[in-house]
Amino acid sequence: MNSALRILYLESDVTRAALVQEALAKDHMASLVMRVETESEFRAALQQGGFDLILADYALASFDGLSTLGIARQQSPEVPFIFVSGTVGEEVAIEALKSGATDYVLKSRLSRLAPAVRRALREAAEKAELRRLEEARRRSEFYLVEGQRLTRTGSWAFNPAGFFEYWSEELFHIFGLDPKEGAPTLERYLGSVHPQDREDMAETIQRMHAESCGCDVNKRIVRPDGEVRVIRCVGVPVLRNGVLTSFLGTAMDVTDQEQVTQELRRSQTFHSEAQRLTGVGTWAWNAITRQLLHASDECARIYGFESNKDVGSFERYYSCTHPEDEPMVRAALECAIGAGTEFDIDLRIVRPDGSVRYVRVIGHPFGEAGEYLGSTFDVTERKLADEQQERLRRLEADLAHMNRVTTMGELTASLAHEINQPIAAAVTDANTCVRWLTRDRPDLEEAREAAKRTVKDATRAADIIRQTRQLFNNSRPLREVVTVNDLITEIIMLVRSEAMRCGVAIRTELKTDLPSVWGDRTQLQQVLLNLIMNGIEAMKGVDGGRQLTVTSARDGSNQLLVSVADTGIGLPSNQNEMFSAFFTTKPDGTGMGLTISRSIVESHGGRLWATSNTGPGATFCFSLPAAMPVQA
Questions:
Q1: With contact defined as beta carbons under 8 Å apart, do 255 and 222 qualify?
Q2: What pLDDT shows up at residue 472?
Q3: Facing residues of 609 across strands?
Q4: CA separation (Å) from 197 to 191, 249, 438?
Q5: Residue among 361, 382, 381 nearest 283 (CA)
Q6: What is the mean pLDDT of residues 513-520?
């Protein structure tokens, strides 16, 4: 042996320890012997520990050998114990061995001690190894049981004869069965399977037997308490010399995972359906490697691909860019990628079937360098609608222009008279100025005053011409800050001669603290012109006083109200149709004036309506939102 044996020797004879060491030395066994005589010394030595072997005399003065053995088994059960005694009867020796002694040796035959010690040590080592293996087995079983419990996985063994040879503890727990009843029969097992899955499971088992194959299936079970669980069953065949001997497998409770999977599928379905309804596809792209990391089904649909699986790469998508838009798209992408910023591009794509679609592509940097996450919007319908809206707006503007031209045509004679008056006055004042200057003694002060009147009359004529040209102009609408009272004054100046010709007196009631409005000056002039001309027209055939009153006032805190009241024939009986297109009470009217006027007012965020007066005539009103407060 490599090191000396550490021996605890219970012996009253002091010479015996040396004899034991000598006997062992003869067999090449070095030893260190600690001799004790009393029970207290024996217990103290055991408490100290560190011994490889215990030797004891069977017959002691203070206590007997079996008591000594009991103490040793209690305090150091793993240390081998050998009795070394003077005389031991057969019955006593058998009793000692039954009580746990490893061996016994007579003091008179110490030559047997070394072999007995070797055997005792060998048996002790074997027992220690068995204990180690048993502990490892128990630990492995504990880990297995805990692992199965934590993962909700049970294991089983199935005999081809048609019965389960083994069910793990966790499998009983999963199925809600009592382990004391043992593994279930095949019939009971199938009875625990959900009725809708039972036939498929039975066919799976039959196929496993017929083809000596394994299985990997999900099935539902119904536990005795009625709870439904989803189980994944995986089994493999065990073959020996090509002969099927058994099936081994696992059963995992995947109810929670199945619920999460179902929720994920529902979420993906909702997401895909929402993308389809809104025409928005999502994608992820690495701009450096030009690898398409993800593209939703809606992306494929927008680009006209049958399936995302058929797309393959980013290049396939990019190749659909309209040739006329490709340089712009390339430049925008290069600029955004170089700066690491997001991009927002409107472009056209050409589908595989040749159709052209308008799309908006938005990308935002995320994740690793060069990676972009984004959306593609199919804006074709909106684009076409915008173009259609623009055409309708242009038609409406042309129609409004025609209405203005028609109205101004009706005022031709009045406008000519209105322009002729300041021009004639300017000519008269110019002649007067010349006479004052050609006298023998020119009167410069009178000539200056005549020249000033000439300038004033010419300016008045120029203003009338300018305002008339504005109404004839067919330019695009231009929104600006407009003072409504100025518009009213300008329009009244244009229609004053027509009103006088028709015997209509025009009166104004204009508040001075009114807010300005944000609008198109020409369009608002057209509304006022239509309403005032309609009022004059309504009073042509009326006897008695003909008066047109134009007022402006506040309507609430943020609204401006304009009204045009006449003393004419009043509103028609079918007032609901009055603002409809082509409705007119005039023999030569177009029926578009009020329709266009309402459209203009509503486009400015206002409202146009009409009411019957308490007396004769009607009042047309419109309100507009204020642009800003008037500075005092």
A1: no
A2: 54
A3: 621
A4: 11, 19, 123
A5: 361
A6: 88
| Contact yes or no for 345/317 (Cβ under 8 A) | no
Q: What is the mean pLDDT of residues 96-106?
A: 84
The pLDDT value recorded for residue 460 is: 66
* Position 202 pLDDT exceeds 90: yes
Angle (nearest 5°) at CA 491 between 606 and 419: 160
Q: Which letter does DSSP use for residue 630 in this model?
A: P
Q: Please provide the average confidence, as pLDDT, over all residues in the chain.
A: 83
d(C-alpha 321, C-alpha 191), whole Å: 61
Neighbour tally for 379: CB within 10 Å: 17
Please give the full DSSP string across 570-608, using - where no structure is assigned.
---S-GGGTTSTT--SSTT--S-HHHHHHHHHHHTT-EE
For residue 59, report the phi and psi dihedrals to the nearest 5 degrees: -105, 110
Q: Tell me the per-residue pLDDT of 219-246, one tens digit each, with 9 for 90 and over.
A: 999 999 999 999 999 999 999 888 899 9
Which structure tokens are listed for 433? 């100025």
Tell me which of 582 and 101 has the higher pLDDT. 101
Domains of the chain: 5-130 (3.40.50.2300), 152-253 (3.30.450.20), 278-378 (3.30.450.20), 477-632 (3.30.565.10)
Element (H, E) at 464: helix 444-472
Over 50: is that where the pLDDT of 631 sits?
Answer: no
Query: How far is 247 from 166, CA to CA, in rounded Å?
Result: 11
Q: What is the CA radius of gyration of the chain?
A: 56
Q: Does residue 172 register a pLDDT over 70?
A: yes
Instruction: Using alpha carbons, list the distances in angstroms from residue 115 to 6, 23, 24, 603.
Output: 17, 11, 9, 118
- Express each pLDDT in 367-403 by its tens digit: 777 888 888 988 888 888 887 777 766 655 555 555 5
Q: Determine the Cα–Cα distance for residues 565 and 509; give it in Å rounded to an integer.
A: 11
Sign of the alpha-carbon dihedral angle for 587, 588, 590, 596:
negative
Residue 305, helix vs strand vs coil: coil
In the block, residue with structure tokens 């229609």: 495
Tell me how many degrees the CA angle 168-173-178 measures, rounded to the nearest 5. 85
The tens digit of pLDDT for each residue in 446-501 reads 778 778 878 876 776 676 666 566 555 555 667 889 899 998 988 888 788 788 88
Give me the sign of the Cα torsion angle 577, 578, 583, 587. positive
Residue length of the chain: 632
Q: How far is CA 80 from CA 67, 106, 119, 511, in A?
A: 16, 17, 10, 123
| Residue 550 pLDDT exceeds 90 | yes
Token couple for 472? 């004839």
Cβ atoms < 10 Å from Cβ of 541: 8
Cα dihedral across residues 192, 198, 201, 207: positive or negative:
positive
Whose tokens are 């056209």? That residue is: 348
CA–CA distance, 626 with 511 (Å, rounded to integer): 14
446 close to 530: Cβ distance less than 8 angstroms:
no
Closest alpha carbon to 233 in 221, 216, 248: 216
Task: Evaluate the CA torsion angle 378, 381, 383, 384 in order and state its sign.
Answer: positive
Residue 147 DSSP label: H
Place of tokens 């680009």: 303
Q: Are 515 and 626 in contact (CB under 8 A)?
A: yes
Name the one residue in this structure whose structure tokens are 């496993």: 208
User: Rounded to an integer, what distance in angstroms lies between the CA atom of residue 191 and that of residue 171?
Assistant: 16
